[in-house]
Amino acid sequence: MKSRSFLSVWVLHVLFAACVVGVWQLLVLKAGNEVLFPNLDSVGAALWDLTSSGKLGSAMLASLRLLFTGFTIAFLFAFVLGVVMGYSRPAGLALLPLMSFIYCVPLIALLPLLLMWFGFGFTGRMVVVAYASFFPVLLNVYAGVRETPPDLMEVARSIGLTGRLALFRHVVLPSSMPFVMAGFRLGIGRAVVGMAIAEVFLRLGGIGALIVENGARFRTAYVIAAIIPLPILGIALTKAAGRFEQRIQYWRYTTVSE
């Protein structure tokens, strides 16, 4: 039954991909101009050229370094702050409106300020990535801590878990893990967007610089070929986070009893 369901999913994926290819080819015919809308063959050739020449690989390595550094820092700070806001009602009441206000400010509007404050090198770009991914993690961690069932806390106290650290480790953290992982998945996706924005804006390296370089020369097929790894990267990281969440689900129900 599971293999049949898996096969059905892949059939749907193939049908959707075929529809996308068909629509793409219709748009190519309608545009009639490789600069405006390149053929899929041209995009494939450009992707192969960027890969075989090593340009795509070196750009991806630079982008991944920026992505993981910025997201790791954002996740750690957001997790700690989210726990503090969720655990302490005064801290939550004081900080949540401010965090929500900053979250509503578009990244592109703050980008020049962030780069002026933190520089135009790796540090400035890292801050842009961290800012882009910080708030989805923060708000989900805060919600997860706040949504811990009170009756579960009472049960934990009745079996001797009275300290804040013990309650957090055995009750709050397992209970809030779905929220934390949801924040992780949302945050890593936003981090990829922040990485692309920072690199395109600065043109200093990575995938963004590759996109801008080919865009300035009107090499549309190469631009699309350079863009393709970004959604693939975001999907792969989100899927990996989902698999990790599945692996740790079991201890949500076993930690307290142990």
Q: Care to give the gist of this entry?
A:
Helix content is 83%, strand content 0%.
List keywords for this structure.
258 residues, globular, 11 helices, single chain, mainly alpha, 83% helix
As a whole number of angstroms, the C-alpha radius of gyration is 23 Å
User: Shape, please?
Assistant: globular
Question: How many strands, which pairing sense, and closed or not: the largest β-sheet?
Answer: none
At CATH level 3, the topology of the largest domain is MetI-like fold
* Tally of DSSP β-strands: 0
State the CATH class of the largest domain. Answer: Mainly Alpha
The total domain count is 2
Uncertain segments: 251-258
Q: Mean of residue pLDDT?
A: 81
- What percentage of residues falls in helices of 4 or more residues? over 70%
What does the oligomeric state look like here?
Answer: single chain
CATH architecture of the largest domain: Orthogonal Bundle
Number of helices: 11
**Superfamily (CATH H level) name of the largest domain:** MetI-like
Quote the distance from N terminus to C terminus.
35 Å
